[in-house]
Amino acid sequence: MSAYKIHSTADVQSEFIGDDTVVWQYSVILKGAKIGNNCNINAHCFLENDVVIGDNVTIKCGVYLWDGVNIGNDVFIGPNVTFTNDMFPRSKRYPDSFISTKIEDGVSIGAGSVIIAGITIGKYAMIGAGSVVTKNVEPYTLCYGNPAGMKKYVCSCGKILDESLTCLSCGKKYFKTPLGLEDIR
Question: pTM of the prediction?
């Protein structure tokens, strides 16, 4: 028997729930959804069938994850973040497949943000509360606004990098590549 915890008011149909994961009140998780280990799915969340969630993920209250959303490890999704999966929705008309949205490892998405279908948010990026993300976000970037735009670079620890791409908090250093920032190992 798996060591996960599901509140008695939650409707969890999936058998793919990782160890030490907690699902809180009034959440619904459909049969095909896959949730990793040590996740916290807060109250009033909804996860459709074609949703994959990595390990150590926190999903705050009021988040709905629709078919095609793929969440990496160590991701934080703030309250009432909205995801979409159909660029041209019509009632009772369904696409052959839904657009895939990828949230890479270590990402934090602030409360009330809107994530438009088909984008990738790169590893350790931070999305400010209330943002509308309409295009891909590079790794280690802080983005906010409507539409969200890159404002600064951030460390994997969450602090802003200085002009030399060094974190004054933990000392980690980064360098630019054609695909965005990478840390110096």
Answer: 0.95
Torsion of CA 108, 145, 114, 121, to 10 degrees: -40
Residue 126, Cα to own-chain centre: how many angstroms?
Answer: 10
Rg (CA), the chain: 17
Distance separating alpha carbons of residues 134 and 130, to the nearest angstrom: 13
Query: Tokens at residue 58, please?
Result: 């926190």
Amino acid at 146: N
Amino acid of residue 103:
I
d(CA 84, CA 142): 21
d(CA 69, CA 117): 8
pLDDT tens digits, 153-167: 999 999 999 999 999
112 and 130 in contact (C-beta within 8 Å)? yes
Whole-number Å distance between alpha carbons of 82 and 66: 10
Yes or no: say if 122 and 180 are a contact pair by the CB < 8 Å rule.
Answer: yes
DSSP state of 135: S
Question: Which one-letter DSSP state was computed for residue 55?
Answer: S
